[in-house]
Amino acid sequence: MTDKPFVTALYDRAPLDSWINGRIALLGDSAHAMLPYHAQGAVQSMEDAWVLARTLQQSGGDIPPALERYQSLRKDRTARVQAQSQLAEKRFHMSDPEQVARRNQKFLHYDAQYQGTFLPQQEWLFGYDADKAALGTDDAWRALRAW
């Protein structure tokens, strides 16, 4: 128990429509501030930085298409992480004892079934490879490069 408890506000926001404007791009909390309940804020910032660096490296100096690529690779993922962080708040900070008991029973089942591994529904979050995402070739990137 702490001798000096304090209250602080936590803020997040809905995903932005765009992270880029010309040759300027947002990353990290400026693009997708999120609640701490999934411990992903700094992780998503590092993924952003890596993907941005790789897309700029591949751009041949053509920055606007590289920024479009960066945004297309990151925006949906970070929006999903934001949503999961909001859900985690509801899941882990319940006040109703009956809801807590039901949740804990589910966790016991998960612990027995998936001991020592991530739950299958968490693979998208914890198994993400930012380098593979940035270096992958797809039709969208080729179209941007041709443009």
TrEMBL record:
Its EC number is 1.14.13.24. Residues 17-82 form the FAD-binding domain. It is an enzyme of class 1 (oxidoreductase). Its cofactor is FAD. Keywords: FAD, Flavoprotein, Monooxygenase, Oxidoreductase. InterPro entries: FAD-bd, FAD-dep_Monooxygenase_BioMet, FAD/NAD-bd_sf. The keyword Flavoprotein applies. It comes from the Bacteria. This is 3-hydroxybenzoate 6-hydroxylase. The lineage of its organism: Bacteria, Pseudomonadati, Pseudomonadota, Betaproteobacteria, Burkholderiales. The gene is mhbM.
